[in-house]
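QA checklist item 7 of 12: single-chain prediction sanity check.
[x] sequence parsed
[x] length recorded as 111
[x] structure emitted
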Amino acid sequence: MRNSVDIVKLKNSERRRSKLGLFFSPEMFTSSFHLLNVVNAQDQAVGLVAALFAEQKVYVYGILEKEGVEEDFKELALHYIKGLAKTAPDAEVYSCVYSGCRKIDFQDEAE
C-alpha cells in the first residue's frame, strides 16, 4: 500500500510527463465564477484564467506572464473554453486571453 508521500511523488512524476508544460491549479470555484492559476511543472504560477457565469453568458479572461510557453497556454485555455461551452450549450462564451501584452486569437480553433 502506498502512503501519501508516494502518491504525491507519483502525481508529480506523471505531471512532468504530460504533453503540456502548463497545468491549472484551481484557486476558487463557485457557481458564478472560476479562478484558476496557471502553473508550470515546477509549480510556479505563470498566469491565470478566470471565468464569470452570468445568465446565458460566460466570460473568460486569461493572461500568461511567462514567455516561451504561449502555445501550451493557448492549447490549455482553448480546451477549458471548449469544455465550458459544452457544459452550457445555450450560453454565449466570450473570451479575452493574453500572452503578455498580445491578445491570443482563437478564431481558427473556434470550430
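[x] summary fact logged: Residues 1-18 have pLDDT under 50 and may be disordered.
[ ] second reviewer sign-off
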